[in-house]
Design a protein that fits this description.
heterodimer; A: 318 residues; mainly alpha; MetI-like fold; 2 domains; 0% strand; extended; B: 291 residues; globular
Chain lengths: 318, 291
């Protein structure tokens, strides 16, 4: 009996370890390779023989690019008659910017695009969800169901028509137009889920609180701002983070709309272009991958409790 | 309540429509209209500049006489069924493990979610490294350690094997979703049921079969259907890991944006995909949402 119990326990922990190994191995591999020197890549050991921080410092712009200038040009540069402006021009020719991966640039692009889209989505959703959960009018449940259904239409189904529309409207030709289109697409893609999650949450707030405020002379709009919004803070944060994460990870629409505007790449398309470029260096790709994952993982861990609650209540969109 | 203009009920209704209008407008403009426009485009030869040319059902005839379309359909079916089945079963297994008490359970539960929440692009690169023919651990294990294979292979580079890798990747990435849904259902099962059954002399297996399974039927059904719907639409997970696995979305993408660009034909493929989806969504509504 005791032996059986011990065997069962061991088996149980073995299975837990197996699950952990399966889920975490790719991440460990990512971290390990990002810290390895090239000669070490093929080595199956996960511990780098010698730590290599250079890809991180390169991506974060901590390391100054070395300028290799031929001797003859150096002599020319030493000529005191040369103006400072000309000197910089000549130097620039030897500093090849082509193999510098503008990670920080892409990071900021993604942050701005995802942050804006999530904020707009949240703003629209607060009012829409209030209408769904609190205001009585005919046709309400019908449109509510319709909205819920639209969250199943995503990605490729909309790709060709949205591209055609933006070309016809003339938004696809300019960088600003393309970014605008992308932000609006992200807003719409996240909106049905945000409406659904917030609607469910608003319904859990006792109506008596609002009635009291209305008796005190608050308008409907004021009750939303003064009662509903403050009481829903955890849910608002959850919805914002979900919307943000969807936009942060999105590849398809970004690749379609930002294709011709290199300097506005988001991280997913930036990393993809790094991978297929001549600079496909594993340590750098892995370091970029870690740095891309870090903010999302950090935010998730911080708000884990709320986010998991949101997940199991249908707060997902793929 | 009186319903002359300006009555309370009417004011209420007006307020309701006003607050929901911005969201509705956006959704109509950027989801409903595009879906309809896509159907319209599928009857045209879409020119990148100039007037589109009406071609009737020609895009569909082209599609139906194209071998690549049937191949793509087959790949899609294998991918969707394989990944959905794997995701659900693994989720079920892990959920029943995590339902037991053990030290550091909170931490482990959080860690298991990592594949689902981390950015796809990062994960794809890690998997590509694992299967890299030169440096990857997969080839090291199969060739040098286990000796299953004589030479290092580029698994992701060959379409047949790549499909398998994509399915495993998809299971790895999405099982936490299934696990989480199932676990939260498991924890809401009333413990009295199990105790009563134990008193009645039910074995462990009997308890699992007669109590746990019936309680989980609904949530498992919901997961399977959602995964079906999502995976038919899935683009990025497949495209970024192995673009040579041509599921319908990938096939649409290549038709629309690479080589001889044929966006009318791409629209037609998307319509086929949409019809498949509508069937599943209908099932989902009847069985899970129960409208």
């Amino acid at each position: 009996m005791v032996i059986r119990r011990i065997l069962q326990k061991t088996g149980f922990y073995f299975l837990i370890l197996l699950v952990l190994l399966f889920t975490l191995f790719p991440f460990v591999q990512m971290l390990s390779t990002s810290l390895k020197h090239q000669y070490d890549w093929g080595n199956p050991s996960l511990i780098p023989q010698k730590l290599n921080w250079s890809s991180y410092s390169e991506l974060l712009g901590l390391k100054k690019e070395e300028v290799k200038v031929p001797e003859s040009i150096k002599r020319l540069l030493d000529n005191p008659k040369l103006s400072e402006e000309k000197r910089q021009k000549i130097l620039a020719r030897f500093t090849s910017t082509s193999d510098v991966f503008p990670f920080i640039n892409y990071f900021i692009n993604t942050l701005l695009i995802a942050g804006t889209a999530a904020a707009i989505s949240l703003l629209f959703a607060v009012f829409g969800a209030y209408s769904f959960s609190r205001v009585r009018y005919r046709g309400r449940s019908g449109i509510q169901r319709g909205v819920l259904l639209t969250y199943m239409f995503g990605g490729v189904l909309l790709m060709v028509p949205l591209y055609q529309i933006s070309v016809h409207v003339g938004l696809a030709n300019t960088a600003i137009g393309s970014i605008l289109t992308l932000v609006v697409i992200y807003v719409v893609q996240t909106l049905p889920v945000s409406l659904y999650m917030l609607g469910n949450y608003f319904r859990s707030i006792p109506e008596s609180l609002e009635e009291a405020a209305q008796i005190d002379g608050c308008s409907r709009l004021k009750t939303i701002m003064l009662i509903i919004v403050p009481l829903s803070m955890p849910m608002l944060v959850t919805v914002y983070i979900y919307a943000f994460m969807i936009a942060w990870n999105e590849y398809l629409f970004a690749s379609v709309f930002l294709k011709n505007f290199n300097e506005f790449y988001t991280l997913p398309i930036g990393l993809k272009s790094l991978f297929v470029s001549k600079n496909a260096i594993w340590d750098r790709i892995m370091a970029a991958s870690i740095l891309t994952a870090l903010p999302v993982v950090f935010v998730f861990m911080t708000f884990e409790k709320h986010l998991i609650g949101g997940l199991t209540e249908g707060g997902v969109k793929e | 309540m009186a319903s002359h203009p300006g009555s309370l009920a009417q004011q209420e209704a007006r307020f309701g429509w006003k607050t929901v209008a911005p969201s509705l407008l956006l959704i109509a403009l950027l989801i409903v209209y595009p879906v309809a426009y896509n159907l319209y485009l599928s009857f045209f030869e879409v020119k990148l500049s100039g007037q589109n040319e009406f071609v009737g059902f020609n895009n569909y005839f082209d599609l139906l006489s194209d071998r690549a379309f049937y191949d793509s359909l087959t790949v899609t079916v294998i991918y969707v069924i394989g990944s959905t089945l794997g995701t659900t079963l693994l989720g079920l297994g892990v959920a029943s493990l995590m339902n037991h008490e053990f030290p550091l359970r909170g931490l482990v539960r959080g860690l298991v979610l990592l594949p689902y929440i981390a950015p796809l692009i990062s994960e794809v690169f890690a998997w590509q490294f694992i299967f890299d023919p030169v440096n990857g651990i997969y080839n090291h294990m199969t060739v040098e350690v286990l000796g299953i294979s004589d030479e290092r292979v580029n698994l992701i580079g060959t379409p047949g094997n790549a499909l398998l890798v994509v399915i495993i990747f998809d299971i790895w990435k999405n099982f936490p979703f299934a696990y989480l849904m199932i676990l939260s259902r498991l924890q809401s099962i009333n413990n009295d049921l199990y105790e009563a059954a134990t008193l009645d002399g039910a074995t462990r297996w009997q308890r699992f079969w007669h109590i746990t399974i019936p309680e989980l039927r609904f949530v498992v059904g919901a997961i399977v259907m959602l995964r079906f719907i999502w995976n038919i639409n899935k683009f990025d997970e497949v495209f970024l890991l192995a673009p040579n696995v041509k599921t319908l979305p990938i096939y649409t993408y290549f038709t629309a944006f690479t080589g001889t660009i044929e966006q009318g034909l791409a629209a037609a493929i998307a319509v086929v995909q949409f019809l498949l989806l509508i069937g599943l969504i209908f099932l989902y509504i009847r069985r899970v949402l129960k409208w």
